[in-house]
Write a structure and sequence with these properties.
The chain has 504 residues and is α+β, with helices and mostly antiparallel strands. It is built from 16 helices and 18 strands. It has a six-stranded mixed sheet. Strands 2-3-1-4 form a four-stranded antiparallel sheet, with helices on both faces. A two-stranded antiparallel ribbon has the order 5-6.
């Protein structure tokens, strides 16, 4: 009896984003990747023959016997426990007879087992310290080491943080192949320059991966066939599926980085790009799970470039070419903002974009890329749906935001093209050959909150109603259409947005 082993690193986001120190975040990400991709080979090089796929913080292996599978779990667990304090790994075994059972069903069973195991672990707890030790500021664990930050300040750190820093320094070139230049940024504050000290935390997640995987499963029929041969072919196809996803998302990241580099002259005023500080820091590049940090003024556009390029990739599944799409959440926050909260916000925005797709098209095969963003407003906190309900409604009940915006769906007027159109109107707005005062635009933002009638009066009394036209396929006037505002998003973002120019 053979066996499948499914395993993953637990609470990856918490492990990576627990501090505001770039070296710690980057080191934690490198550690997770190393655990999944490198440690098995370090333990036993022959384990490479047992690999089905890995990536995204999880991995699937197959063994000819249950005994070998249990030995693998023992060896990997000991290695992780010894070398990486603070990392927790979940591992499950699913016994499997390749001659009599469908491997695709057995893999599903393994994922169910893993979910149950993770859920049980989430309800457990433990004591971090005894209250008499000096504590690490990043983890809250006892601090038994010291280090000095870039400002020369002495810090007390735990074993977990020491390992993260060491891995960041030792493997600083880990992500260099994703960037057009060597990245010399060591702190998030180096992403920006001037008084607009904002960074953007961007989280991107692929759409409908479960549906795509189910389509792949449907290709493999077991009626009157050799189970062993079909299982072998399915595992081969599953690995190719995983590899293709990884290639598409990594290629899209590289393309986005190259576009930023090509716009460096326009970005020099706001970033340190001319000082060999390339304003892009990859944090998680794991299959269809992408997280990076960039300058606050290019966060929105960088995500747009990524999503557009991703959609150029197609996967051949069951005789059908399926375009790849994803959703992006962009949290634009001050450089000193708590990083874990910024990541949570970006993840929440990404989820909100996915919900919009589901709301518009239900459980159909319709698939498009969307982007949502939020600019941190000090004490405005909470889930994005609550923020929008409490702060993005006019007094007459209209939504002030168009977001989330479709990237590649012209059928919906709430699309990125119309956002850029609104942005071009407000940045190039002229009255009597003089550019309108930004103060008047910011005043308009406050007027929009009062509703359509107040906005109409303001535009007419200031003789600027003609400078805020309706969008294509939108029939509303005075900045509103279909109970939504057409211009609030652009006015709110105008101080933290640079449109990146396409090649040619």
């Amino acid at each position: 009896m053979g066996a499948l082993v499914l395993w993953e690193v637990s609470k990856k986001q918490q492990y990576i984003f627990s501090s505001n120190k770039l070296k710690e975040n980057r080191g934690a990400s490198i550690i997770i990747e190393d655990i999944i991709e490198l440690i098995p080979n370090k333990v036993n090089p022959t384990y490479a023959d047992n690999l089905i796929y890995n990536g995204g913080g999880s991995s699937l292996y197959i063994f000819p016997t249950t005994i070998e599978a249990r030995e693998f779990i023992k060896n990997i667990s000991e290695k992780v426990l010894y070398e990486y304090p603070g990392v927790e790994v979940f591992m499950v075994i699913e016994e499997y007879d390749e001659d009599m059972e469908k491997v695709k069903e057995k893999i599903d069973n393994a994922y169910i087992k893993l979910a149950i195991k993770k859920n049980r672990r989430e309800h457990s707890g433990g004591q971090l310290s005894f209250g008499i030790e000096r504590l690490c500021e990043s983890t809250g664990l006892p601090a038994n080491f010291t280090e000095y930050d870039l400002d020369g300040k002495k810090r007390f750190i735990s074993s977990e943080i020491k390992i993260k820093i060491e891995n960041s320094e030792k493997n600083s070139k880990k992500f260099d192949n994703l960037l057009p230049v060597k990245n010399s940024i060591n702190e998030f504050r180096e992403l920006s320059k001037g008084n607009k000290n904002y960074v953007a935390v961007v989280h991107i997640d692929g759409n409908q991966m479960g549906k795509k995987l189910n389509k792949l499963k449907d290709e493999f029929k077991y009626e009157d066939c050799d189970y062993k041969e079909i299982n072998k072919e399915y595992l081969k196809a599953l690995k190719k599926f995983s590899d293709d996803i990884k290639l598409a998302f990594e290629s899209s990241f590289k393309h986005m980085a190259e576009e930023i580099k090509r716009n460096e002259n326009d970005l020099a005023q706001y970033t340190k790009i001319k000082e060999d500080k390339f304003p892009l820091i990859p944090i998680i590049i794991a299959g269809d799970d992408i997280t990076y940090v960039t300058n606050g003024m290019i966060g929105i556009e960088s995500a747009r470039i990524f999503l557009e390029h991703l959609n150029s990739f197609g996967m051949d599944i069951n005789g059908e070419t399926i375009k790849l799409n994803a959703c992006a959440g962009v949290a634009i926050v001050r450089a000193g903002y708590q990083f874990y909260k910024a990541y949570e916000l970006a993840e929440d925005l990404c989820s909100n974009a996915k919900k919009q797709l589901l709301k518009d098209y239900g459980n159909t095969d319709a698939d498009y890329s969307l982007i949502d963003w939020h600019i941190e407003q000090g004490d405005i906190i909470g889930p994005i749906l609550n923020i929008r309900e409490d702060y993005y409604k006019s007094l007459d009940g209209k939504k002030l935001n168009m977001r989330p915006l479709y990237i590649n769906n012209p059928e919906k007027w709430t699309n990125y093209k119309n956002f850029l159109l609104a942005n071009s109107y407000i940045t190039k707005l002229q009255i009597d050959e003089k550019q309108i005062a930004r103060s008047k635009l910011k005043k308009l933002r406050e007027i929009l909150k009062k509703g359509e009638k107040e906005t109409e009066f303001y535009l007419l009394s200031n003789q600027i109603s003609n400078y805020f036209p309706r969008f294509k396929d939108a029939c509303g006037d005075y900045c509103f259409y279909d109970d939504r505002c057409m211009y609030y998003d652009s006015i709110e973002a105008m101080d933290l947005f640079i449109e990146l120019q396409k090649e040619g």
